[in-house]
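Subject: Sanity check before I submit

Could someone independently write out the structure tokens for this chain? I want to compare against mine line by line before I put it in a report. The sequence has 176 residues.
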Amino acid sequence: MTGNMNKGIITGEAGPFALPEKVEFRVIDIDPENDGPRDSRVNGSTNFGDIFVVTMPINDGTAPQIEKLKGKHAPNGEIMIENKSGNAKPLEFSLFKNGKKLLSQKDVAPGDSIHLKVQPKLYIAHVKENSFISGTDFKAVTESIEATSFTLDPENPDVKIVVTELPNKEIKFTRK
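---
Independent answer below. Compare away.
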């Protein structure tokens, strides 16, 4: 971050920051042979706006098949999934990022379609002096004086934040 302080106002800029744009779509069902969960994954990455169709051979123990529709886009940065698994059992549709489940919809019945949307947030915190070492995990409860969150649009993630130090030394974050 670069900046300067003039009459109680801190000015400067940082960034650009690269938001995680890629997520992984998985279908989770019960493996009839092992009686436990299994997940089917998409080949390649999943992008906001993708549309998937899930099919599943009936009663043969095969895992669900996932097809990404090319040339079509879901609205508003959503990911749309159609369950066309015939009369198979309901499935769970999930989005993962770096191996961690972000969100999921369980019991999606055959014939139903769902829209999943990730709404990223940017958190900015005023940190207590000498309480945070760069490169370590941030503990907001013990190291932060205050924090502000800003909801971002995955299709247009540009945001400008104004940082102001008030006369009482309080730091205020606002969206420009």
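---
OP: Matches mine. For the report I'm noting this point. The mean pLDDT is 75.
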